[in-house]
Amino acid sequence: MTATVATPTPTPFDPLCPLMGVEEEYLVVDPRTREVTPRAGLVVERAAEELGERVCTEITQFQVEAKTPPCAGPAELERELRHMRAVVSAAAEAVGLAVVASGTPVLGDAVPPPITEHPRYDLGIANYRALHDEQAICAGHVHVHLPDRERAVLVCNHLRPWLPALIALMANSPFWAGRDTGYAGWRILSWSKWPVAGPPPYLESLDDFERLVAALTESGALVDPATIFWDARPSLRLPTVEVRVTDVPATAGESVLLALVVRALVTVSLRRVEAGDPGPRVPAELLRVAYWRAARDGLDGHGVDPFTGRQVPVAEVVDGLLEHIRPALADSGDLETVTLGLRWLREAGGGAARQRAAGAAEDVVDDLVARFLT
């Protein structure tokens, strides 16, 4: 619910390596009980001494949000992410707390969560009511620079079919407040109840986007235009696209991998837009099913091909994603980094599998705390 991390125009646009930035949301936990604790404000206050406006509170008092500056390459982005996480972790430790990167709280009394005091959140509570009860959820957002907002809208048409693959790659929320949900990415199921969330609609133009946002605002479904929570969306004021579909990755290394995959997806999509390709009109019904299956199985089991509705092994989904973005990765010099990262993820297991492998719930939290700085 915060501003994007990308820089405003006239930043020069690099078609091979557009700038990218990452936002991450974390949960604050009590290191003794391992439960989420509503003291994020203390952590943010200390972390802001070094990070400034790049760290802030979120809608619940369990959450901290932090963001990188725009970065050109993976080395720069990894350096910024590790620094950002180190500052937030140290700030938590200084007040007797810890932070974890998990899409949902593993332990604690999380329903309903204590809401951060802010006039905008007050409006949201009045409008959305009990939808806030499961808002202690954390995502990873990637912002990618584009030439203009018109093309950002059209790029989203091409991103839609690949969003389930991103969900599967970064699924990192198997537990909800002490219970194993049976899903790899429970956050996506919790989030899908909101009126303007999930995959973006197919849009013909920037004017089409702005007319729809105006209509949704007039309908009362939005508190304001910034509460468009589609999983891929153009910025309201900057020439960027934001992909916000995944759980927050457990490690900084996975966040870098996610950002490179997303940037390559955006780059390939932009090339198709500029070649006059309007993008595939994947039915919303198939996307919804593909979302569900990706959230259920993560990197284990099967996914759904949103182009056909066919059930396929998740490994096939990931291979298809890599093949789709290969040209952009080769041009940016990121092909080897992403290929090795995806191989590591398959061998080590996704975030959900690693959480389950850690053992009892308390051990899961301890493992997440340990991985936070890796």
Automatic annotation (TrEMBL):
**InterPro entries listed in its UniProt record:** GCL_type2/YbdK_subfam, GCS2, Gln_synth/guanido_kin_cat_dom, YbdK
The EC number(s) given in the record are 6.3.2.2
Q: Which GO terms describe its molecular function?
A: glutamate-cysteine ligase activity
Q: Which reaction does it catalyse?
A: L-cysteine + L-glutamate + ATP = gamma-L-glutamyl-L-cysteine + ADP + phosphate + H(+)
Keyword Nucleotide-binding attributed: yes
**Which enzyme class, named as a word?**
ligase
Which PANTHER family does the record associate with it?
GLUTAMATE--CYSTEINE LIGASE 2-RELATED
Function, as annotated: ATP-dependent carboxylate-amine ligase which exhibits weak glutamate--cysteine ligase activity.
Q: Which family does it belong to?
A: Belongs to the glutamate--cysteine ligase type 2 family. YbdK subfamily.
Name the chain's protein.
Answer: Putative glutamate--cysteine ligase 2
Native source organism of the sequence: Nonomuraea insulae
